[in-house]
Design brief:
By secondary structure, the chain is an alpha+beta fold. The chain has three helices and four strands; from the N terminus they run ααββββα. Strands 1-2-3-4 form a four-stranded antiparallel β-sheet.
């Protein structure tokens, strides 16, 4: 082996390693993570609204109108008229009132299906 090439290799390898180390350290020092911001949990009203709207969809209610601001969901299922009213309460909570009107016994069946679906969505 050529003694000049051997000397060149012995000198160049430590220099390369040092330069690589400096480059890695410089890049690592430049890393700035963006702050992770968690979104606030939904309000109680929003949680109740989503559960009521989802319950209506779960049981097959054909939703005709849904107005989150007023808290009203209206639709029909099997000839039964469904009205769901979501209301904020003075203690900061919220509640859903479910009414199903139509030919008996379908109205009771639809009302029960809605109540059960709503309770499932609320984790009850």
């Amino acid at each position: 082996m050529n003694p000049v090439a051997s000397l060149h290799r012995r000198l160049l390898n430590p220099i390369r390693i040092a330069l690589l180390g400096i480059a890695v350290a410089a890049l690592a020092g430049c890393y700035y993570p963006y702050p992770v911001t968690a979104s606030p949990p939904p309000s109680k009203y929003d949680r109740v609204w989503e559960a009521a709207y989802g319950a209506a969809a779960d049981v097959g209610v054909q939703i005709q109108t849904a107005d989150r601001a007023s808290g009203v969901i209206r639709g029909t299922k099997d000839g039964v008229i469904v009205n769901i009213n979501v209301r904020a309460q003075s203690d900061g909570g919220a509640m859903a009132e479910i009414k199903a009107t139509g030919p008996a016994p379908h109205d009771r069946v639809v009302s029960q299906q809605l109540s059960q679906a709503y309770d499932r969505r609320m984790g009850r």
